């Protein structure tokens, strides 16, 4: 007889719910999402769970397995000790719609606050004085006259493009999870998005005031839980949040820079 | 079987659905922080046995060794009370640097303030959370402590050079190395790795640019890459340098107080 897995799955909505036990046979190579699908097939076709790709790429199947935020489709059953119940809950920071499906639409509203990519006028695209000395040609392809940038410049923002919007980082971030600062704080996913735009060599938008005031970057105390759970292994704190904090310091908190700006306003 | 949904709450400190040993890391880190703070405070206030070697009145046949807690050594005016040793006037620099370090912030917000104690584990105080917008806003001055820390690295280089200059028998100085020299050289190594992997430095050397084109852009890109490579291990360097600086002080204390003999290697 095939080995059996014991699952405790949250059933209910945002106001009322309970943990319900199910037993399903374990197949080789099974992941937690497969086990949830087995529950649907064997006992409860109305069990709500969001999923799409089963390959860790669509970001739909976020949940909390034994208290840890994870993509259920990438979480193998064989790493959990046999015979012990596996607890599966919806992500905590967002309202439960039904069972394991949560309403993450708050994230789309935050996203709308961020001004999209704004192309620099290419001839004046060089921000720093040193690059200017290289001439504006370096920003245009000689054959097509298309704006261009180097691989090195692309590499840095490329990392942020890996985000699959699973919102596991938003779920685990204590500013949202414990302090419920949804009104004042944007969350790590959107710091990643702002960083991808702010560090883009051809973007001329300015989102520093937005990230400081409306997205509440200062609420983040860089305790790195977002980085620990990101299934795409984006270095959220080291490569997005801390560099943004440093840029915010440059603009708003560095007393000597502030003084210099008063004395030499043009520079 | 159905349990009550109320058991899903994470309301009071430490409540979680996690089943792993999430508390081990914060407890170990809190113990390390507290032990270091007690040791450094004691040694900073002790005002004794912090140097030896020629010119200090202790072990004149040895090279000059000074505890990193007392470096750079200040000559204090005589009207200051005797218990106010020179360490107090210099220790605020490395202390401020470490207190405002991005890695250390992560470590002590978790370990000492349980804010949060670990990921997906409930915290103690949920009201009036301000993060780094309230009293912690001074953390934004980290870059100024970085500039001071770079001066401290230079002081450490000077002390390692001094620790290689041993009084020769016929007068003058000659090159020599003892276990103590190695101890402070290792401390210099880890302090340098810690300082040069700093997030603020990474920003300063190139991170703040969007464009890496042009001749200085390319060299700053290279610097940024070097700093980024070191930065990946910044947390490790934080702990290693904390240990080596404590150990260097301890070693000098032991030799200066006559409890051990500093073995000369060559
Ligand atoms: S590092 Fe900041 S954004 Fe990331 S989880 Fe912690 S508080 Fe939230
Ligand atoms: S940054 Fe990572 S954890 Fe956050 S939404 Fe994107 S992929 Fe998910
Ligand atoms: S189903 Fe697409 S990420 Fe899990
Ligand atoms: S960030 Fe740790 S020393 Fe600067």
How would you sum up this structure, described in words?
The complex is a heterodimer of chains A (267) and B (266). With 267 residues, chain A is an alpha+beta fold. Chain A has 2 domains: 4-102, Ubiquitin-like (UB roll) (Roll); 105-263, Alpha-helical ferredoxin (Fumarate Reductase Iron-sulfur Protein, Chain B, domain 2), CATH 1.10.1060. Chain A has 11 helices and 7 strands. In chain A, the strands form 2 sheets. Chain A has a 5-stranded mixed sheet. In chain A, helix 7 crosses helix 10 and helix 8 (208-214) crosses helix 10 (236-253). The N and C termini of chain A lie far apart (77 Å). Chain B has 266 residues and is mainly alpha-helical. Chain B has one domain. Chain B has 8 helices and 5 strands. A two-stranded antiparallel ribbon of chain B has the order 2-3. In chain B, strands 4-5 form a two-stranded antiparallel ribbon. In chain B, a hairpin with a 5-residue loop joins strand 4 and strand 5 (173-175). At the A-B interface, strand 1, strand 2, helix 3, helix 6 and helix 9 of A face strand 1, helix 3, helix 6 and helix 7 of B. Strand 2 of chain A pairs antiparallel with strand 1 (2-4) of chain B, so a sheet runs across the interface. The structure holds iron/sulfur cluster (2 copies) and FE2/S2 (inorganic) cluster (2 copies). One iron/sulfur cluster binds next to helix 6, helix 9 and helix 10 of chain A.
